[in-house]
Design a protein that fits this description.
361 residues, alpha/beta, Aspartate Aminotransferase, domain 1, Aspartate Aminotransferase, domain 2, seven-stranded mixed β-sheet, 13 helices, 16% strand
Length: 361
């Protein structure tokens, strides 16, 4: 059913549980404010990960370098690339910043959508980079034509966040691939795929396939989202071996031994992976139902959050929602009348619905 603004919501949403405000639901109030602000997966870490950590906690006294091999091998097998293409990072953020450093030094020029995830861009700017920020189109999708027009002989990196944060939109798969193969001879393309696991479009391509072809493409992935390991800080980059080597040398902190153990266990936990996706879809449908009741336009999301037009300055909405015990996403200029709400447990999403209806309704 359309909500206006050209966007449509998924149907079949489950009913919200009413009366689950912070003061009325002890299970929620005991945990303090409900965190629907950082796109975390509240279900993790899984029981399999917990067991692995418990059994190998004695390795917590060891530096991680001797224990990276099994995880690198597992990722390489999963992505169908040589191990030399895999760079382990502290979350995907460390990989993003490493790329920002490598390609932003000495007045490097970077092209990116706006708004999008800023970690790479802001870090690059600290080292003298110039970032060309290209507005999203009217459907809040990367405007690839406009981005390509910005490419010059000085361009070193083109940053794509796909699915995009904060809009939750994805690029057409064929268009994305054509764009990457068109511009990668002039600049490196960085494809941030932190939310790739949540895409439900059939046969949607990861740009890892271009890495396999030897293209000038870098892909970042993370264990912070669907695997529920945000607090462990573990992610990875996939790139051609020569590019991977440059990025590896630019890492600042690396990750820790417990994170390696957790990620290795998580990769083999198919049941938890599927349950995370199932719970995420249920939570999104409840969020859509609330927004539909309030007549608020929302973008169809391919992530674990929903971006919607609240019609209220986000800073005001943030404050009012926090007073109701619910934390929502930060401002994403210039879209100050839009809000990003992360999925959570069903009782948390229900509490969000009640709070939003009180604040806006």
């Amino acid at each position: 059913m359309a909500l206006g603004g050209g966007f449509a919501l998924l149907g079949g949403a489950p009913q919200l549980v009413h009366g689950a405000s912070r003061t009325e639901n002890p299970a929620i109030s005991a945990r303090g404010p409900i965190r629907l602000s950082s796109n975390e997966n509240p279900l993790g870490p899984s029981e399999r990960v917990r067991r692995a950590l418990s059994e190998r906690m004695d390795l917590g006294c060891r530096y991680p370098y001797s224990y990276m091999g099994p995880l690198v091998s597992a990722i390489a097998a999963r992505e169908e690339v040589p191990e030399s293409c895999v760079v382990l990072t502290g979350g995907s953020t460390e990989g993003l910043k490493a790329a920002g450093l490598v390609y932003g030094l000495n007045n490097g020029e970077i092209i990116a959508a706006d708004p999008t995830f800023q970690a790479l861009l802001r870090y690059a700017e600290l080292f003298g980079a110039y970032v060309h920020r290209v507005p999203l189109d009217d459907k809040l999708v990367h405007d690839l034509d406009a981005m390509e027009r910005r490419v010059t002989s000085k361009t070193r990196l083109i940053f794509l966040c796909n699915p995009n944060n904060p809009s939750g939109t994805i690029l057409d798969g064929n268009t994305l691939r054509d764009f990457c193969t068109s511009v990668d001879s002039r600049a490196v393309v960085f494809s941030d795929e932190a939310y790739f696991d949540y895409i439900t479009e059939p046969d949607y391509p990861s740009m890892v396939e271009l890495v396999r072809e030897g293209r000038n493409v870098i892909v970042s992935r993370t264990f912070s989202k669907v695997y529920g390991l945000a607090g462990f800080r573990i992610g990875y980059l996939v790139a051609r071996p020569d590019i991977a080597s440059r990025l590896r040398e630019a890492l600042m902190a690396h990750t820790g031994t417990p994170a390696l153990i957790a990620a290795e266990a998580a990769l083999g936990d198919d049941d938890f992976y599927k349950e995370s996706l199932k719970q995420n879809e249920m939570a999104k449908k409840s969020i859509y139902a609330t927004l539909e009741d309030l007549g608020l336009p929302a973008v169809k999301s391919h992530t674990n959050f929903v971006f919607f037009k609240s019609g209220m300055d986000i800073r005001t909405l943030q404050s009012r929602m926090e007073s109701e015990g619910v934390l929502i996403g930060r401002p994403f200029p210039p879209l100050y009348d839009w809000a990003r709400i992360s999925t959570g447990r069903m009782e948390e999403v229900a509490a969000f619905g009640n709070a939003l209806k009180k604040v806006i309704g």
